[in-house]
Amino acid sequence: MDALMKRRSDLRLLLMQIRTEAKVCDEEHRSFASYSGLAPEQIDILNVFQTPTFSPGAAAGYDALLVGGASEANVLEPARYPFVHQCEKLLRHVVTTSLPTFASCFGFQLAVLALGGRIEHREEGFEMGTLAIRLAEAAREDPLLHDTPDGFAAVSVHRQYAAQVPSGCERLAFTEQCVHALRVSGKPFWAFQFHPEVDRATLVERLTHYRDHYTEDAGHLEQVLTTAQETPESNGLMRKFVDRILLS
User: Fold this and answer.
1) Prediction pTM value
2) Which domains are present in the chain?
3) Handedness of CA 199, 201, 202, 208 (dihedral sign)
4) Which of 55, 57, 113, 194 could staple 154 via S-S, CB 3.0–4.6 A?
5) ∠ CA 150-152-157 to the nearest 5 degrees?
6) Cα(121)–Cα(168) distance, rounded to whole angstroms?
7) Percent of the chain, pLDDT > 90?
8) What digits encode the pLDDT tens for the residues 78-107?
9) CB 103 within 8 A of CB 66
10) Contact yes or no for 46/58 (Cβ under 8 A)
11) Within 10 Å of residue 100's Cβ, how many Cβ atoms?
12) Which of 33, 31, 38 is nearest to 8 (CA)?
């Protein structure tokens, strides 16, 4: 092995977190670490609710940037959540510097806006639960998705969505409703509308916790939870990101 090649234990990542509740913050941090194959101590946190103003170069010195989801914020309300524009600046910076980036859900929406795309809102009939994700043509040559089966299961809960990818990006995966994965062309930058860091057990935990935010009533919640599936292909993407991009 090349003497200059990093070992897994050498990696240090930054997680940009957009959450307020300590229990969910901790669960998200540990989920990212677990599915990356890293120790939680290898992933530092920039919580934008706690630190709404930060430099576009905040991820400098790290091996990669991770961006998580959010249930307490809306990318379409930057006046209410002023850190949205700060996050966009950071994402444009990591694209420019080619820092490897892996974004999930809210992070996907931030990436679309940062790259000049459009995010739309759906108040009713939005995706929630375990979905079948279709692969686009570009996925055949993608380092992370080329060996992922078409129609793989993934967890997704979101009211905001993108119907198209921004200019300069490749559409990698989708559902009938929206785009679910993109890559910035020629850059180590991936964003997923679904949650690669969330498995069935975590979906049940999160939806139960946020039931008033996402579900109409107890019957609706029960319907979503009883149809939840395991999502091994989705959960494996973070390990592929570490192995194939950061350690290759």
Assistant:
1) 0.91
2) 8-246 (3.40.50.880)
3) positive
4) 194
5) 130
6) 23
7) 77
8) 999 999 999 999 999 999 999 999 999 999
9) yes
10) yes
11) 20
12) 38
